[in-house]
Specification:
The protein has 175 residues and is α+β, with helices and mostly antiparallel strands. The protein has helices at residues 11-37, 54-63, 87-95, 135-173, and strands at 39-48, 66-70, 78-82, 99-103, 118-123. 49% of the residues lie in helices and 18% in strands. Strands 1, 2, 3, 4 and 5 form a 5-stranded antiparallel beta sheet that branches. Helix 1 packs across helix 4. The protein is elongated.
């Protein structure tokens, strides 16, 4: 039988299968990372400098992954769910001149104490990983990996499904 470009043992098919396996493995890795590392985000407090505008505050909240501003105190501080508890993010928050004070962030050790109250959001390892901490980039990576998996393994899955249907028809058709 002559080989076609769709034959399972051609270099093109092997490359397509390898791309599909990389995509599927990447999705599995992200799923495992989420499953193993997701946890409630700690609740911290931030007191913004009086001169910070609402637009600046929104931009800084996005930069530092501060979510759900709520519970203002008389001094003007707000409670937030903090999604990125990495030392580099905590250092940036503490050092930012537009932030007057923080609550529930240990300024000397750059950690959030274990016993703080949880917020309403959930965080996971991607929130502390450069690049992946941005939701849009994370979505692009997931779509790209899914496309790789489907594009690379789709023809194999289609052939397996067709073979299973033929086998089922053959079994049913037998007297």
């Amino acid at each position: 039988m002559a080989r076609t470009s769709h034959s399972p043992d051609t270099p093109r098919h092997r490359l397509r299968r390898a791309v599909g396996l990389v995509g599927a493995a990447g999705l599995a890795l992200l799923g495992a990372m989420y499953w193993l590392t997701h946890e409630p985000a700690p609740r911290v407090r931030v007191l913004w400098h009086a001169e910070v505008t609402a637009e600046q505050r929104t931009s800084l909240e996005n930069r530092y992954l501060l979510r759900n501003p709520r519970d203002p105190l008389s001094n003007g501080s707000l409670a937030y769910d903090l999604l990125d508890t990495s030392a580099s993010n905590l250092q940036a928050i503490v050092a930012d001149p537009r932030i007057v004070d923080t609550g529930f962030i240990e300024r000397n050790t750059l950690v959030v104490p274990f016993d703080v109250e949880y917020g309403g959001e959930w965080m996971w390892l991607a929130h502390r990983t450069p690049g992946l901490r941005h939701a849009q980039l994370r979505a692009i990576v997931i779509v790209a990996l899914a496309a790789m998996a489907i594009g690379g393994l789709g023809s194999d899955l289609w052939r397996a499904w067709q073979a299973a249907r033929r086998t089922q028809r053959d079994v049913v058709a037998r007297p």
